[in-house]
Design brief:
The chain is mainly beta and about 250 residues long. The chain is about 10% helix and about 45% strand. The strands form four sheets. A five-stranded mixed sheet has the order 4-3-2-6-7.
Length: about 250
Amino acid sequence: MKRIIIVAIALLYAIVAHAQTAGTVSFTVKTVTAAGEFAPKNVVAIWVTNASGTFQKSLKVMAATRKPYLYQWKAASLQNITGAITGATLSSHQTHTVSWNCQTAGGTVVADGDYKIWVEFTEKNGQGPYTSYLFSKGLIADTLTFSNAANFNNIQIIYTPAPSAIEEVVYEAQIFRNAGPDNIGFGVPSQLAENAEFQIFDISGKLLYESFDYFDDGSVRYFLWNAAAQRSGIYVYRIESGAQIFCGKFFK
């Protein structure tokens, strides 16, 4: 039966259609001295890259003339401080809490996927401690707490996807699991229009499968996905058939 999917499913549709979820990330870390020659004075940088190391945005850079000694940040960012908290050398170590709006320095919302938050400081005219923390941006909110290390304590990442500002009218498909152990069928009412698109996404919004093939018996239009190569978990289907959109979550 046709129905308006609640806000959670509207958000789901927005994600799988665009794989570019708006959201916010809060990052907290306490730096601990490495006994450098100027300790406890230190300069510090916090920034974001994708999982492969491509720079996204600086979040905090507390340094003036000693910026060149933040070697890792300098190499990654080319000293881009657009949108970052900035200031002079710190007189002591402290807890830093910064926020990221999931956008690049240029203001574009980044694609869903894995990202790293980096932190680096130095108390000398040379390389100081640095590290990074991995998290996933997508549909699911998450809170990650990391173990203390020699120079970094009380580390936490909180990721919160934004509520959808757009309510979409979408429908749910029938799911059939009697097409074989690895085949999952999806049925929607037959449409007069011939166009049809069938997509499967993982929970982060990554497109796994796309097809324009279907079987129509005159009352139901059927789509089939062979899930043999995928591990058990939650997946998302999206079917555009005629003028209607069908979307939902299912467990494989």
